[in-house]
Design a protein that fits this description.
The chain is α/β, with parallel strands linked by helices and about 325 residues long. It is about 30% helix and about 30% strand. A hairpin with a 2-residue loop joins strand 9 and strand 10. The model has no long low-confidence stretch (mean pLDDT about 95).
Length: about 325
């Protein structure tokens, strides 16, 4: 029973209807109706096709390319605010521009901070997201951020495989903390890869630190883009005597030659979530839905309950 007299409604942007409808179904409701109108010059307009006055409005939209998805989310938040919604919560399974979390070279933008400013300016009251590329992005907001982890779905699956001689690997130094948490939770050893980039999306060399001889390796990352890093790391680990290589990533960005790289690689299985829809099918890719996780957290937030139990790692 809700502690609020205000109704709850779940909506989704066009490109996230596939996951928004699942979240609504797991919650036990129907996805709300949105009217979308596009003009001949490419400009578009959104409107809610039902009342949201006094409601807790949850808007599901991942902000993967094109940037139209981000702008549609901003328009939906603005529309909800102008329609007198009680609370507006942006549910962003994949938070785009999260790789731009700091100034790593002169005269560059900090894209994720700009996105936080835009969301705040549009009138959002709360943000719910999954496996941010950098944890500090939560601090870019002066409003509540529920940062969820797909490990609550991935870890039970990995355990179900009952792999012997398991070792967890980080594909680069940036992912070492995440992989270390996995290793502690699964009570296994940790291996770290050190990479040197030649240019963006181009890896020059990778060094594997740790023992993978006769081990079943699980490489853990938050996202995979071109799959250059993870497949190179997998090749080196197999050369060093690994039994098998699996990869886990929350966000299957999978751009450019990613699918080809994965098919040709020694990775036997890529386990990912549905935060981003796959562009093509692959027998090597297993998708686990994170819709039940979001539905559960939405229910707890609406009922003012703690969400601590949703964090495995």
């Amino acid at each position: 029973m809700s502690l609020s007299n205000n109704p709850l409604k779940i909506f989704a942007g066009r490109e996230s209807e596939y996951i928004g409808s699942q979240i609504a179904a797991h919650y036990g409701t129907d996805l709300g109706k949105i009217e979308f109108r596009k003009f001949s010059d490419g400009e578009f307009e959104v409107a809610f096709d039902e009342t949201v006055r006094g409601a807790h409005v949850f808007i599901v939209q991942s902000t993967f390319p094109p940037t139209e998805n981000l702008f549609e989310l901003l328009l939906l938040i603005d529309a909800a605010r102008r329609a007198s919604a009680y609370k507006i919560i942006a549910v962003i399974p994949y938070f785009g521009f999260a790789r731009q979390d700091r100034k790593d070279k002169p005269r560059c933008s900090i894209g994720s901070k700009l996105i936080a400013n835009l969301l705040t300016a549009s009138g959002v009251d709360r943000v719910m997201t999954l496996d941010l590329h950098a944890d500090q992005i939560q601090g870019f907001f002066d409003l509540p951020v529920d940062h969820l982890y797909a490990s609550s779905v991935f870890v039970p699956y990995i355990k179900s495989l009952e792999l012997e001689d398991l070792v967890v690997a980080a594909p680069d130094m940036g992912g070492a903390k995440r992989a270390n948490n996995w290793a502690k939770f699964l009570s296994c050893d940790l291996v770290v890869s050190h990479k040197v980039r030649k240019a963006e999306n181009q890896v020059e060399s990778i060094t594997v630190i740790g023992d993978v001889q006769d081990k079943n390796v699980v490489i853990v990352d938050d996202l995979i883009d071109t799959a250059g890093t993870i497949t190179k790391a997998a090749e080196i680990m197999m050369e060093r005597g690994a039994k098998s290589i699996r990869a886990v990533c929350t966000h299957p960005v999978l751009s450019g030659p990613a699918y080809e790289n994965i098919e040709k690689s020694p990775i036997c299985e890529l386990i990912t979530s549905d935060s981003i829809p796959l562009k093509q099918h692959s027998d090597k890719i297993k998708v686990l839905s994170i819709a039940p996780v979001f539905a559960d957290v939405i229910k707890k937030v609406y009922q003012h309950q703690s969400i601590s139990s949703n964090f495995i790692i």
